[in-house]
Amino acid sequence: MYAVQAVRQGGPEVLEYTEVETPTPGPGEVLVDVKAAGVNFIDTYRRGGMYPMPFPHIVGVEGSGVVAELGEGVEGVEIGQRVAWTDVHGSYAQKIVVKAEELLPLPDGVDFETAAAVPLQGLTAQYLVTDSHAIKPGQTALVHAAAGGVGLLLTQFIKHLGGKVIGTVSTEEKAELARAAGADHVFLYGDGVDIREEVMAFTDGTGVDVAYDGVGKDTFDASLASIRPRGSMVLFGAASGAVPPFDIQRLNSSGGIFLSRPSTQWFIDSPEELQKRAKQLFAGLDEGWLKFRVGQTFPLEQARQAHEALEGRATTGKVVLTV
After folding, report:
1. Name one GO cellular component term (predicted).
2. Would you state the torsion angle of the CA atoms of residues 195, 144, 134, 37, taken in this order, to the nearest 10 degrees?
3. Model confidence pLDDT, tens digit, residues 101-144
4. Closest Cα partner for 51 from 6, 91, 93, 95?
């Protein structure tokens, strides 16, 4: 079979589409014919060395496909069943082995591209608004990169829970996407734009209840300055680079701010929790209040170009590789 490997630590140029040995499912596992794979910033972090990984490794952590072979002892899964998965290494490939308990059965009408694209970002948005900072009716949230994959989902979850959204984006095209997702106020960040001033003007000087920041270094200070006393700062990514070390006393002087740095491994730590969160995510899609946008698709062999587009912030919605 063919797969995309990061052959060494580095930029998108280290990705190679190459022939590798087809894996075999062990006890409790299944072999899946991959139809699509989601492209995420965590893939670039691991490729670039921010998170320790062995090299070479097959890139990717989520996807969708059709069950092709059952390992010993697998029950409740059928050959030919349509499934998705998340947080499974090696998804940029024609075939992948997944533990049966980690498979997400696909609801009727959900296509493979959407199924491959939504789990990681959708489950992230779900725990951000229910656990990292539980949104309550009437609360206001600042969402950076509001037209990105997580940003669009966050906006819709917050609105469904009765909150208001202030979104930041980089272009007017992206601003329209954020507004269409339900954002109450959207503005472009960049040179000459004071994020705190925009937030304070919209909130009558109060500040937001929570800032959801997946951008990191470029927006962290402005996010912290935009939060009301005893509000929450939820840092869940580093699209612009890691936030430099800072004096924790700033949280006190900013109003007793709660700071968290969540990740999927701590909020989906059992098969039961995975299925519970996935059930709410897919219910939103089934009920229609949650819409998901696949922004760009690339064939598997063009994974390098997909990473370049993602890191260059030249995308809206989710990037997907098709197999």
Report:
1. cytosol
2. 180
3. 999 988 887 889 999 999 988 999 999 999 999 999 999 999 99
4. 6
Assigned domain for 275 exists: no
Residues 87 and 135 both lie in one domain: no
Residue type, 144: H
Residue 152 has a pLDDT of 93
Residue 120 has a pLDDT of 85
Whole-number Å distance between alpha carbons of 195 and 188: 9
Give the count of domains, the chain.
2
Tens digits of residue pLDDT in 214-270: 999 999 999 999 999 999 999 998 888 899 999 999 999 999 999 999 998 899 989
Orientation angle between helical segments 303-311 and 41-48, nearest 10 degrees? 100
Across 29-43, 227-241, 281-295, least confident range: 281-295
Average pLDDT of 189-211?
93
Contacts of 8 (CB under 8 A, 6+ apart): 14, 55, 56
What CA–CA distance (Å, rounded) separates 133 from 259?
10
Helix (H, G, I), strand (E, B) or coil at 176: helix
Q: Is residue 77 part of a domain?
A: yes
Same domain, 77 and 164: no
Q: How far is CA 163 from CA 123, 130, 156, 159, 303, in A?
A: 19, 12, 10, 5, 37
253 and 147 inside one domain: yes
CATH of the domain at 17: 3.90.180.10
Does one domain contain both 19 and 61? Answer: yes
Please report the pLDDT score of residue 317 as a whole number. Answer: 67
Is residue 131 located within the same domain as residue 113? Answer: no
Domain that holds residue 129: 121-264
